[in-house]
Amino acid sequence: MTGTHALLEVKNLHVTLTGDRRRRTVLHRVDLAIPAGAALGLVGESGSGKSLTARTVLGLLPQGARVEGEVRFDGRSLTAMAPAALRGIRSHEIAMVFQDPRAHINPVRTIGDFLTEGLVTTRGVRRAVAEARAAALLGEVGIADGARRLRQRPSELSGGLLQRVMIAAALLTEPRLLLADEPTTALDVTTQAEVMAIIDETRLQRGLAMLFITHDLALAAAVCDRIAVMYAGSVVEELPSGHLSDAEHPYTRALMASRPDLGGPGKKLTAIKGRPLSAFETGPGCAFAPRCPDARDTCTTQHPALLPAGSGQAACHFPHHPRAAAGAAERSTSDA
Amino acid sequence: MSTYQIAALGRGSTRLGRLRGLIRGRCVLIVAGSVVAVTVLTAVFAPLIAPYDPNAVDPTAVYQPSSSAHWLGTDDAGRDILSRLLYGARSSLLAPALVTLTAGLVGTALAVSAAWLGGWYDRLVSALLDIVFGFPGLILAVVVAAMFGAGLTVAVVTLSVAYLPFIGRVVRSAALRERQLPYVSALRMLGVSGRRICLRHLTPNLLPLVLVQIATSYGYALLDVAAFSFIGLGVQPPTAEWGLMVANGSTGILAGRPEQSLYAGVVIVVFVIACNLLGGSLSQRLLGDNR
């Protein structure tokens, strides 16, 4: 990937979980890099390991999880870090916005408690100061009467408002990296757009780096600089968001083809045949091989590595767009 | 009765149905609550209400039947039974309160820390709680009394240990569920320390459950303290205590004077039933379960 000094670097990440006496691989091989101030969209189907990747970055894994590989933040290894130091990273450097805000805020405490607790306990900020800052930040994320909202409980706020509170809580720690785990999935479409705009604006204003997890390719392409596509616990393709239409990996191409086209004449949606596999179900070869229209013998026997292909990287033995295959040589020279 | 009427009964739309709803909802709470409140008040104000000194011996008036001078009669040493019941409420109520509060406090601390930390510590705590749970409290008390001598302190400490599992096991399983909730990850994400999450978030959210467990085990603890005193391992004579009075009065049964045992027994039974009903109604209100 581009920068030599990426803010967040995930290298060859491999995670196994123990459940009812069996070990199961959930992340097979994840490689990511986010330069400071850049946004990376992590897309994939449900169960492909997107959220787990974000949770692994911050060590929020269930008990009995085993992590191999490395996660580096600003040159420091998070995977080898002591719990107290990791807590420092969580409270100062990396913040996370979760999918379902209602479930992620203690329902019996006030919004003010939720927002200020981190500042008061980990930074020694005085409560009154923390509350003033929280109220100001609530204004920034589009909640006008912040001071009153601080006294309310989560049940008194709508889902959209709560997600703004969540974003405010993340921004309040003045992080350098924001992990957004499907922040708009639980919201209705209009609030979704508003919340997305708030995330995008505040991120650009503050120069935050962001890992944006979603299964909405178009949304990811709109707010992110680069896109990483996950399938069955591994990153299969990584490319600039503007180049999604000439993706190299057949899975990414299939995802693009299965999007509804609002502008053109109505036609039947194309679906990817078969069902998505979990990381522990995959064989020795490419995880996508059973569903891939271009699969050959090598695909079922050898695991493809993530190698430069086209404008990004792809984990595919035959990473060429069928239509562009003939002109691939010319394209690579013109890109260089 | 037609099915129509039965269905109406269930909805509480007939007079009988409404009455049933009232009994289930409020009446139990009111009656049980008043019994407990009155008993607690008499324990507190025993010196003001009691007509006699509970330990005043009168050899000239042993085994007196009920009279205007001694409402509930006198015992084998001529002591006024009513006064002894009133004073007896003090140690009879206080000892189980200490037992359940200690067990509640220590049990909750053990349970929440075990659920939070997990690993070998959780296994150790669970195993210890299971061992104590499998050990009958009375036998434990006999063993401890044999080592440290009988007395109220020994009884309270032993029973506190014996009651740990009743609080600890239930609270641990609830804490395990609670710590999986997303808001806990969100707090960890904000850099809040584990100790603070346990103290400020998990424990307060588990508090209704702890209160209900304390309330429901209080009646049993009272019964156990009384049983301890009955077999001579708890409160020592001449202190007035209900369980001890039952034991003491048993000598009078042969003399045709069962009053002391009878009155003390009735007081224990009524109070314990009231406690359990109160605990049940509390659990219905706080936890919304319909056991």
TrEMBL record, chain A:
Annotated compartments: Cell membrane
Keyword Nucleotide-binding attached: yes
Stretches assigned to the ABC transporter domain: 8-257
Key word NAD present: no
Keywords of this entry: ATP-binding, Cell membrane, Membrane, Nucleotide-binding, Transport
Topological type in the membrane: Peripheral membrane protein
Gene3D superfamilies linked: P-loop containing nucleotide triphosphate hydrolases
Classification via Pfam families: ABC_tran, oligo_HPY
Xref: NCBIfam families: oligo_HPY
Name of this chain's protein: ABC transporter ATP-binding protein
Organism of this sequence: Streptomyces spongiae
Lineage of producing organism: Bacteria, Bacillati, Actinomycetota, Actinomycetes, Kitasatosporales
TrEMBL record, chain B:
GO CC term, one of those recorded: plasma membrane
Residues annotated as domain ABC transmembrane type-1: 89-279
Domain of life: Bacteria
Chain segments annotated as transmembrane: 27-50, 93-117, 124-146, 152-171, 206-235, 262-282
Similarity annotation: Belongs to the binding-protein-dependent transport system permease family.
Keyword terms, alphabetized: Cell membrane, Membrane, Transmembrane, Transmembrane helix, Transport
Main location: membrane
Topological category with respect to the lipid bilayer: Multi-pass membrane protein
Listed InterPro entries: BP-dependent_transpt_permease, MetI-like, MetI-like_sf, OppC_N
Cellular localization per UniProt: Cell membrane
Pfam families membership: BPD_transp_1, OppC_N
Protein name from the UniProt record: ABC transporter permease
GO biological process entries: transmembrane transport
